[in-house]
Amino acid sequence: MFKLLKTQGCARLGEFHTVHGVIKTPVFMNVGTQAAIKGGLSSFDLKEIGCQVELSNTYHLTLRPGDEIIRDLGGLHKFMNWDRPILTDSGGFQVFSLAKLRNIKEEGVYFSSHIDGRKLFMGPEESMTIQSNLGSTIAMAFDECVENPAEYSYAKASHERTVRWLERCIKKMRELNASDNAVNPHQMLFGINQGATYADLRIENMKRIAEFDLDGYAIGGLAVGEPTETMYEIIEKVEPFAPKDRPRYLMGVGTPVNILEAVDRGVDFFDCVMPARNARHGHLFTSQGVLNIHNAKYMKDDSPIDPECGCHVCRNFSRAYIRHLFKAGEMLALRLSVMHNLYFYNSLMEKIRESLEKGTFADFKEKNVYILGQRI
Amino acid sequence: MFKLLKTQGCARLGEFHTVHGVIKTPVFMNVGTQAAIKGGLSSFDLKEIGCQVELSNTYHLTLRPGDEIIRDLGGLHKFMNWDRPILTDSGGFQVFSLAKLRNIKEEGVYFSSHIDGRKLFMGPEESMTIQSNLGSTIAMAFDECVENPAEYSYAKASHERTVRWLERCIKKMRELNASDNAVNPHQMLFGINQGATYADLRIENMKRIAEFDLDGYAIGGLAVGEPTETMYEIIEKVEPFAPKDRPRYLMGVGTPVNILEAVDRGVDFFDCVMPARNARHGHLFTSQGVLNIHNAKYMKDDSPIDPECGCHVCRNFSRAYIRHLFKAGEMLALRLSVMHNLYFYNSLMEKIRESLEKGTFADFKEKNVYILGQRI
Predict the structure, then answer these.
(1) How many contacts (CB atoms, under 8 Å) link A and B?
(2) ipTM over 0.90
(3) What are phi and psi of A68, to 5 degrees?
(4) Contact residues for B321 (Cβ-Cβ < 8 A; gap 6+)
(5) Quick check: B300 and A72 in contact, CB under 8 A?
(6) What's the DSSP call for residue A224?
(7) Alpha-carbon span B242 to B248, nearest angstrom
(8) Nearest 5 degrees, angle CA A62-CA A67-CA A68?
(9) Second label for B304, Cα 20 to 30 Å away, from A1, A298, B122, B354?
(10) d(CA B49, CA B189)
(11) Which residues contact B151 (CB under 8 A, 6 or more apart)?
């Protein structure tokens, strides 16, 4: 259940109530694709860095270790020892981006595993069954994520099929939640808006999926190659047709600047692999912009990554130490960097929420949208 | 200052008082070669797993980031944020095992860096200066670690040179500790017994170095290829000549069984990369023997690595989860495994100390010397 607490322009402060606790929005979800966070972070580290929602991947987990194994072990929460909300994506995006030899039919997608080439099939029912076995808090509908740019005719046919798939997802999820051995009988379902970069298709799609009265609505198929301005325009066009009383989730986005711009356009949920991936390359987010820890000037620098940051890493370790760990090839370099970058994201969302609470979001955005994009 | 609290046969329960706190012996030192523990463990994890002494490497740290940089940053304790004792080895062993194009002279060793081929020199004075810059609690004397098997004549000439080097180490360390800008003016020095596998040379060497009244005495040059029984014999032969009122440190040893046998022969300090290295290969120590987590039988096993273990990993994660992390190539697999194995070692030492306290060490050893060597 979503409570809209305050708005400022299109930006929204809210609370999303789930069986695993309340999610304060806007929120950034921390990605643990294979039930673990890159850089060696455990579920305990996630609490340390202020993570509200962990995100895992249906496609990866069904291939390895297998969703039935996770179900038999009591579900994903127990498996990874995490008691707060988990969102699982539907596997749709990974089937289209990772799997090989895809063949899309009305019933679903035939593909080969990127791990061992096994021939597999996933349709709406399979995706719902897997997510039910995982027992996540929020399941995502199975959709086709069309590559950008896409032909208009293809994008139209695809979004219409995605709507038909959504109906099947809803029916299947209802059955699964009602079954006696559901890991999480209160599993929620978010629909996903598609339509490539065509505003009319996006709007038509959002109107159609809004009718199903789902727990939340995602915007998918963006940040996949189109210009950033196009992404912002699509959000602006489609936002008026997204139910006001449901959270909106912009999938796979993005930089701190992208997040500020999208919050300003009415988005509540985010996720992205970028903070962890950048961390592993030594690109660390700070309140003054992005820092490259490999830079020789940090060799003797005993200040923390970001003097304004309150994270475990900034409270305890210096730039000089972290730079040394990178140069020496120590795994601890990655762990500390990922911890810091994810904390930075979670903390940015907290500041955004504070500014919405105080009614100062416009100023906060104005000030940070320039600084946070800088390389220092 | 070493306090011998109790003995049982040759086995000893003691306390070693240092400027960074008291070390309860017998003790296993946790190896952080490059000022970080393999598997992404930080100094906070070291506290979590009950580490008393961290061990870092002079050779590695002088090459990278450079001991003068660490000195300028306040020493190794501050650099890695660890306030308990640190032992640094002298660099001798690494110069002989890692460096290239070695040329051993009376003044010291000329060699090339294994990282970039740079031509370098290290003698007793250089080793002491580097360790003084690092500011460790305990410095090790600079020695030649002779390969086994060695010619008698070579082993004899080498141990005699090592004694001459020790005199120079003592003189230099005294100067460094007295200097105004010593990072740790209370730095202690351990001598190292050498003499290859020749009992007469080992004994002669121990008698000679015992005269210097050092803070502790190590047995070096063992566990480098000789049969295990030879190692035990050497310890037995040399032990009566090691000062009773000083701790004895068996360098680079070993398996849990090796440790039990060596404690039984009067050894107080240990270090070894094996628990961390084995962990990275999925070989996990348990109270019932060594377990290979890759084994398919653990796929759905929701019990902890070792049901009798009280570590963070065993309290919170299952064999099935850790096996999955290995199969999925997640760094967290390594971190959790290293944490567990190091905790196992630290906890084994604690149990050894408890049994010495109670006078039941012989029974404890008898029972575990078989079990701990098993593969389950």
Answers:
(1) 127
(2) yes
(3) -70, -35
(4) A35, A73, A79, A80, A81
(5) yes
(6) S
(7) 8
(8) 135
(9) B354
(10) 27
(11) none
Choose among A289, A292, A323, A335: nearest CA to A308.
A289
Please report where in the chains the tokens 């936002």 appear, as a residue: A239
Structure tokens, A104: 């899309």
Shortest Cα distance, chain B CAs vs residue A344, angstroms:
20
The type of residue at B100 is: K
Q: Which stretch of DSSP H or E encloses residue A100? A: strand A100-104
Quote the CATH superfamily of domain A2-272: Queuine tRNA-ribosyltransferase-like (3.20.20.105)
Reading the block at residue B176, the tokens are 């460094």
Q: How far apart are CA A137 and CA B337, in angstroms?
A: 29
CA angle B276, B253, B159 (to 5 degrees): 135
Interface of B with A (CB under 8 A): 34-42, 44, 60, 64-65, 69, 72-74, 79-81, 299-300, 302, 312, 316-318, 320-321, 323-325, 327-328, 330-336
> Does the structure show a pLDDT above 80 at B101?
no
pLDDT of residue A100: 79
Q: How many CB atoms lie within 10 A of CB A190?
A: 24
Distance, CA of B151 to CA of B198 (rounded, Å): 10
**Residue ranges of domains in chain B:** 2-272, 279-371
CA-CA distances (angstroms) from residue A272 to A107, B31, B287?
29, 36, 42
The residue type found at B123 is G
Decide if B158 contacts B146 (C-beta within 8 A): yes
Q: Cα–Cα distance between B307 and B100 in angstroms, integer?
A: 46
A→B contacts (Cβ < 8 Å), by residue, are 34-44, 60, 64-65, 69, 72-74, 79-81, 299-300, 302, 312, 316-318, 320-321, 323-325, 327-328, 330-336
Per-residue model confidence as pLDDT tens digits over A90-145: 998 888 888 777 899 999 999 999 999 999 999 999 999 999 999 999 999 999 98
Question: Tell me: the pLDDT tens digits for A1-32?
Answer: 999 999 999 999 999 999 999 999 999 999 99
User: How many whole angstroms separate alpha carbon B166 and alpha carbon A233?
Assistant: 74
